Amino acid sequence: MGAVQRSRNEGGRVAVFVDGANLYHSIKSYYRGVLDYGILLEAAVAGRELLRATFYIVEKHETEEAQGGSGARSFVYNLNRFGYKVRSKPLTVHETVTPDGEKTVTHKGDWDMGIVVDMMRLADHADAYVLVSGDGDYVEAVEYLQSEKGLRVEAISAAQCTSQALLDVCDLHTDLGDIPELFRRSPKAVGDGQSAAG
C-alpha cells in the first residue's frame, strides 16, 4: 500500500500498459485466486488522471473454438467494463521438420514490440506510465522515455519474476502481492477468462 500511496503524490496524466501474457504467467506461478482487474487499474492510476489503459492479450484460437469461444469474449468484455482498451493478436504456431524428420512445434505470441510502439506514440501526452510487466525487454524503452521524454515510469509485477534491470530503472515498483484486495477467491465475478491473456 505504501508504494501505491507514494505514486499518488506525483499527479498528472497517466497511461497504463498491461502485458497480459506476462501478467497471466506471474499469476499462475505465484498467486492464488482471481485477479480483480478493476482494482489493478485503480492501483496503477493511484488517483491521477487516466489518459488511457491498454490491455494486450494473445488469443489461443484453437482452444477457444473447442470451448465455444465464449471465455475470451467475456474476458474482453469485462476488461472493457473496467476501463481497459483491449488489443489482441492470435498466437502463431510454427511447425518445422528437422533433417531427421522430427516435427518441432513452436508458439509465438507476445506484444513487447507493440507495447513499446504504443508507449512512444503516447509519450507527448502523458506525465507518467505504469507498465504492468516484469519483463526486462522493456528496459531500453523505459530509459529512453525517462531521459528523452521526461516521463515517470512505474512498474507493477510479481517481484519474484521481475527482471532486476527493470526494477533498477523504474521510478517505482509495486508488487502485485502488496495491492490490497487484488486477488479474489471466487472466479465467478470476473468469469475466469484469465487464460485469454496467456
TrEMBL record:
Q: Which residues form the NYN domain?
A: 13-175
Gene Ontology MF terms: RNA nuclease activity
Q: Which domain of life is it from?
A: Bacteria
Listed name of the protein: NYN domain-containing protein
Query: Which species is this UniProt entry from?
Result: Rubrobacter marinus
